[in-house]
Write a structure and sequence with these properties.
Chain B: This is ABC transport system permease protein. The complex is a heterodimer. Helix content of chain A is 33%, strand content 26%. Chain A is of the alpha/beta class. In chain A, the strands form 2 sheets. A 6-stranded mixed beta sheet of chain A has the order 6-7-8-3-9-10, sandwiched between helices. A 4-stranded antiparallel beta sheet of chain A has the order 2-1-4-5, with helices on one face. Chain A is globular, with a radius of gyration of 18 Å. Chain B is an all-alpha fold. The radius of gyration of chain B is 22 Å and the shape is globular. The chains are: A alpha/beta, B mainly alpha.
Chain lengths: 243, 248
């Protein structure tokens, strides 16, 4: 991981909620460039909502979000979404072959993805070129998730958000994806934020960890905090009893 | 046809009524309501049309058309409540179709500018446009819901709202216009269209009746496509906000 010198994402007093519910309560924190930060916490603690704010799919009610030294409100939404890529738990595939799916980020920009580039991406995610013209919806969950990661990476985002991307996969696929993400982080110096319910994953893959409970950022810092939590709230969460 | 003859035709209402009672279909009440409503509505329209034709006033013609548009909007808007400003979008669509088609018909002297021609043709066009918009809105709202994952995927990858909704929009436009196009393929083979049959029964020259029917067919085709395309392109932006966020 790069040294904790430059900040990729800075949040200050970020609040978000619906008419009936406060989802994020004054989140303040920093994500360092080039690292892997895992986000852990009970279901409904606001982790995915935070991702939606960072990717520009939602707008905070109050507070500021600075991404690469620029306020999120100053970004053109399209530019922001290309710079902050997101991969969701459900790897939605367009009907058609793998090539059509990989081409999507290029098609949206009116460009054509060369087959050579597509094959290069397949190799990066550990699939061979025979996959290129296979129907995307016929692939296994793990393979679809890898295609989904590759598709997002084709936008060359400096920041990558991963929302529970291994939660529905078997153990072997989980390890493969962890390896892939680790490689992407090293090869492209991509700043990665990863929501996971797997504490082993958070401890082994994440350089840093944020623990979110009930819409608040309760603890943040080096992933070691998962072994030595400072607060009772996090201790209770780690013991398995959701707050 | 005299009122006495008309009353004899009620025998055709009696048949479904008896069948419903016999087989316990539970349609008796609806049959009676539908019959009473159609008699009252059509007779009222008949007298109103007679008054408008006699008055030869463009003001009454315009009022009649506005009434038709209002009734069509009232009926169709229920299918698009999830789309903000649907009432105005329907008003704009129906008004545009009415102005465009009547301008061509009257401007090119295809029909004379009299109530006798303008009102029935407007009724057919606005009625067809209303059915089309209901078909479109039904399909579009369900497509948007079913494809919400795809819409969000495209947005998160940096696509525009139009790109993200493209598939839903196109398949809804296609699905809503297909019945009109398909029914025109078999017209005259399976059934004689209502207007043409009416003219022939009233003693008009069949070839002349066919020519008018063809005019109506071509008009219905254009209204079908314009309704779906226009309503589609007016509706989709209200699913997003100015930050290109999908408002589910």
């Amino acid at each position: 991981m790069a040294e904790r010198i430059s900040v990729a994402i800075k949040l200050k007093n970020v609040k978000y909620g619906t008419k009936n519910m406060e989802i994020l309560k004054e989140i303040t924190g920093e994500i360092y460039k080039g690292g892997i930060t895992t986000l852990v916490g009970p279901s409904g603690s606001g982790k995915s909502t935070l991702f939606s704010l960072l990717n520009g799919m939602k707008t905070p009610q109050t507070g500021t979000i600075i991404i690469n030294d620029k306020d999120i409100g100053q970004y053109d939404p399209i530019q922001l979404r290309r710079e902050v890529g997101i991969v969701l738990q459900k790897a939605t595939m367009l009907s058609g072959d793998v090539y059509k799916n990989l081409s999507l980020p290029y098609t949206l920009q009116g460009k054509r993805l060369s087959e050579e580039k597509a094959i290069e991406m397949l190799k990066l995610i550990g699939l061979n070129e025979s996959f290129l013209h296979r129907k995307a919806n016929d692939l296994s969950g793990g393979q679809q998730q890898r295609i989904s990661i590759a598709r997002t990476l084709l936008n060359e985002p400096p920041i990558l958000l991963l929302d529970e991307i291994t939660s529905s996969l078997d153990q072997a696929s989980q390890h493969e994806i962890e390896q892939l993400i680790s490689n992407v982080n090293k090869q492209f110096s991509t700043t990665i934020l990863w929501i996971t319910h797997n504490l082993r994953q958070a401890l082994t893959i994440g350089h840093d960890t944020w623990v979110m409970i009930d819409g608040k950022l309760v603890e943040s810092g080096s992933s070691d905090l998962l072994q030595n939590p400072r607060t009772d709230e996090v201790r209770r969460f780690l013991k398995g009893g959701e707050k | 046809m005299s009122y006495l003859t008309l009353s004899i035709t009620l025998i055709f209402v009696l048949i479904p009524f008896i069948l419903s009672k016999q087989f316990k279909l539970g349609l008796e009440k609806d049959t009676v309501i539908a019959t009473v409503r159609s008699v009252i509505q059509l007779l009222a329209v008949g007298y109103i049309l007679q008054f408008v034709f006699d008055s030869e006033s463009y003001l009454f013609i315009i009022l009649m058309i506005l009434l038709m548009i209002g009734a069509a909007v009232q009926n169709a808007r229920k299918k698009g409540v999830s789309i903000s400003g649907i009432t105005w979008k329907l008003i704009v669509t129906y008004s545009f179709i009415e102005i465009l088609t009547q301008s061509i018909l009257i401007g090119l002297k295809i029909i004379p500018p009299t109530a006798q021609y303008i009102i029935p043709i407007s009724g057919m066009l606005i009625g067809n446009s209303m059915v089309l918009s209901i078909l479109f809105l039904n399909r579009f709202t369900s497509e948007v819901e079913n494809r919400s994952d795809e819409t969000e995927l495209i947005l998160t990858l940096g696509g525009t709202p139009k790109q993200s909704i493209h598939h839903s929009l196109m398949s809804s436009i296609r699905a809503s216009t297909i019945p009109t196009i398909e029914s025109q393929k078999t017209i005259g083979l399976v059934q004689l269209p209502g207007m043409m049959s009416g003219q022939i029964i009233a003693g008009a020259d069949p070839v002349q009746a066919v020519m008018f029917q063809l005019l109506i067919i071509f008009l219905l085709l254009t209204t079908a496509v314009i309704t779906s395309v226009m309503l589609g392109f007016l509706s989709y932006p209200s699913l997003f906000n100015e930050r290109m966020q999908f408002l589910k």
